[in-house]
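Tip: read the tokens left to right.
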């Protein structure tokens, strides 16, 4: 069943009628075939922040696991208002929803990833990590993790733009989801085959201090807290091994795998868990984009990333 907003619902949405957005129906048709795609994209520029946020929700559902819908949204110029809302919407909820829609739109979508690079989308991700919203940070980190896992050149660019420092700061967050996702991003950078640990050398001492602090915190946890922190334990240990080529104190003291837990070979895909619905539908979607091997130490993606942003880079909501 594909999500559909009928033409009548789209008309109800006009004029700031938020209730119309809630009248979303499920049917066997697709959004484009009933003429609802263009109106929904239009509402991404609506003066009502709640309507902008809800429209982004609709786009998210439409494009998830659906390469055809991804292409239609790109062709209908849906990327530009989503990027604008993500980067500069004055309403934080609308910004967060736009980021979620962008994540779904460009995942396994080569033209979408290229457009994100050309539009300086990574600068928006950096701004999101600097925000005070844990939810916004988690969504940004999940997209960062995906991009890092897909392209060696992205690893180089992220390192050059200062993301390791930001992720080190977030690895001490009070929010466990942010903390784990930041550790996962750092681990992806440390394991990059073209950069190795060099992407973290500038902050090598800070990283060592951070990991030791996390391990000391884990050592003082109650059994219940230790169980809840299983993913963090595994990530901290894996990152320590990747950077320092020696077992962590968690492993040495028997805190890595507790009694009753199964051992593991690879750390969990913590940030990637936000995309679990996409994994479950993998059998129905197009083959994944192959990881690029063309990156080098100077950052093969820099030209794409640092190109001029589109003219619609600033939000043009009519208030």
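Filled-in amino acids:
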């Amino acid at each position: 069943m594909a999500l559909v907003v009928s033409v009548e619902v789209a008309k109800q949405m006009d004029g700031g009628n938020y209730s119309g957005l809630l009248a979303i129906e499920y049917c066997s048709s697709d959004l484009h075939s009933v003429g609802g795609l263009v109106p929904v994209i239009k509402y991404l520029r609506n003066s009502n922040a709640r309507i902008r946020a809800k429209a982004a929700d609709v786009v998210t559902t439409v494009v998830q696991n659906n390469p055809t819908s991804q292409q239609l949204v790109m062709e209908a110029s849906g990327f530009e208002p989503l990027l604008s809302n993500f980067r500069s919407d004055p309403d934080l909820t609308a910004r967060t929803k736009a980021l979620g829609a962008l994540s779904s739109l460009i995942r396994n979508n080569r033209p979408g990833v290229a457009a994100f690079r050309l539009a300086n989308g990574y600068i928006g991700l950096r701004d999101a990590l600097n925000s005070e919203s844990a939810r916004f940070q988690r969504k940004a980190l999940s997209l960062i993790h995906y991009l890092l896992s897909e392209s060696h050149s992205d690893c180089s660019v992220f390192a050059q733009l200062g993301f390791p420092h930001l992720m080190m700061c977030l690895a001490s967050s009070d929010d466990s989801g942010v903390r784990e996702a930041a550790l996962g991003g750092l681990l992806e950078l440390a394991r990059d085959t073209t950069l190795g640990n060099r992407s973290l050398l500038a902050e090598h001492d800070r990283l060592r201090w951070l990991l030791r602090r996390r391990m000391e915190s884990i050592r003082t946890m109650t059994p219940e807290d230790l169980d809840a922190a299983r993913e963090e334990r595994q990530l901290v240990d894996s990152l320590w091994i990747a950077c320092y080529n020696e077992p962590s104190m968690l492993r040495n003291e028997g805190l890595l795998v507790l009694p009753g837990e199964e051992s593991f070979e690879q750390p969990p895909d913590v940030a990637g868990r936000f995309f679990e619905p996409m994994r479950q539908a993998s059998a129905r979607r197009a083959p994944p984009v192959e990881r690029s091997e063309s990156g080098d130490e100077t950052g093969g993606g820099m030209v794409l990333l640092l190109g001029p942003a589109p003219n619609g880079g600033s939000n043009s909501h009519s208030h």
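Strands lie at 2-4, 25-27. The two ends are 36 Å apart (CA to CA).
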